[in-house]
Design brief:
InterPro entries: Sulf_transp_TsuA/YedE. The chain is an all-alpha fold and 144 residues long. It contains six helices and no strands. It is globular.
């Protein structure tokens, strides 16, 4: 069975950092910080200026573990209790979902909810319902 290690203080700290980062991006650039949109804009930027801020945000996301390592001397532990095939299938499902949902959990759940966007509220409720159903099925029906 997959064990969930709830870390309230680390989770709160991460949430605060994401909230501050998304607020600063909206304040200084006037854009919503949805991870999928940021990545898509790096792949197909609308302009050089558009590419610059997106590349900076993406570099910050990627370099986070290196900063933890420099500060603490330890790399963050990453445990993925599923097979590579499950990761690939899950990634494809998420990719399809963010395409049809016009955004990801960070864009809708953090930024859209903060702006009281009806579309984001519905999208976030949909994410949460399917998350609950998936966890229930995996833990209590399939016994993973």
């Amino acid at each position: 069975m997959i064990e969930t290690a709830f870390t309230p203080w680390l989770s709160l700290g991460g949430g605060v950092l994401i909230g501050v980062a998304s607020t600063l991006l909206m304040f200084f650039v006037g854009r919503i910080m949805g991870a999928t949109g940021v990545l898509a804009g790096v792949v197909q930027p609308a302009s050089g200026e558009d590419f610059a801020w997106r590349a900076a945000v993406l570099a910050g996301m990627i370099s986070g573990p290196a900063v933890v390592w420099l500060v603490s001397g330890n790399m963050p532990a990453v445990q993925v209790p599923v097979s590579t095939a499950a990761l690939v299938i899950g990634g494809l499902i998420v990719g399809v979902g963010v395409t049809f949902g016009s955004g990801c959990t960070s864009g809708h759940g953090v930024c859209g909810m903060a702006r009281l966007s009806p579309r984001s509220i519905v999208a976030t409720m949909t994410f949460m319902v399917f998350t609950f159903v998936t966890v229930f099925l995996l833990r209590h029906v399939f016994g993973a």
